[in-house]
Recover the amino acids of this structure.
């Protein structure tokens, strides 16, 4: 009994290519560009490109054209030496094995990439690396707290322990209250110097 296909396993979209080089998506009944085909490929959507006149499958040619356009935009993934070796394999007795080898290599690369991404998520989601990152953040917060006391650009960091916050200056402040503020600031500066001396 045949299994029902999921969305990802659905039939490939048929794209028709006309003589004027325009591409027609038969699923959406609209003309599309190579950029959209490139996006569909990245999303894992299967499609087949056929010549509108002859019905010939030209998917390989169109995919190669997409690669050429990406390379021309400066997104080079194919090293020159690799291209030379690939060209040299045409007509070689081993030519028939190259497509299978490249496909197997790319499959292995994608699996390794996926495993690496999952390992990174696991590392920072919990475990020893997460504990180290948490301890580093606590040390940073402690250091910022020791030197912070209202440091601009560090919102939410409390002032140093044992120090009073700077007084709020009001427009109606008298000369006497200004002297008190200056004395408070001197006291805070002295306390700060004493803490720095203890740390060094």
């Amino acid at each position: 009994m045949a299994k029902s296909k999921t969305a990802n396993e659905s039939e490939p979209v048929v794209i028709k290519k006309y003589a004027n080089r325009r591409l027609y998506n038969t699923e959406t009944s609209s003309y599309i560009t190579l950029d959209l085909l490139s996006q569909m490929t990245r999303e894992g959507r299967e499609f087949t490109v056929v010549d509108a006149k002859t019905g010939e499958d030209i998917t390989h040619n169109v995919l190669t054209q997409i690669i050429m356009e990406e390379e021309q935009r400066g997104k080079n993934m194919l090293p020159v030496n690799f291209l030379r070796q690939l060209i040299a394999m045409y007509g070689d007795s081993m030519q028939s094995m190259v497509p299978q080898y490249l496909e197997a290599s790319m499959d292995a690369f994608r699996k390794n990439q996926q495993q690496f991404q999952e390992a990174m998520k696991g590392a920072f989601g919990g475990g020893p690396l997460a504990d180290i990152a948490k301890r580093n953040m606590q040390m940073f917060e402690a250091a910022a707290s020791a030197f912070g006391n209202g440091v601009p650009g560090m919102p939410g960091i409390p002032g140093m322990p044992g120090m009073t916050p700077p007084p709020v200056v009001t427009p109606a402040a008298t000369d006497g209250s200004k002297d008190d503020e200056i004395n408070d600031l001197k006291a805070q500066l002295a306390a700060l110097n004493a803490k720095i001396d203890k740390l060094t």
Summary: The radius of gyration is 33 Å. The longest strand covers residues 13-17. The longest helix spans residues 98-125.
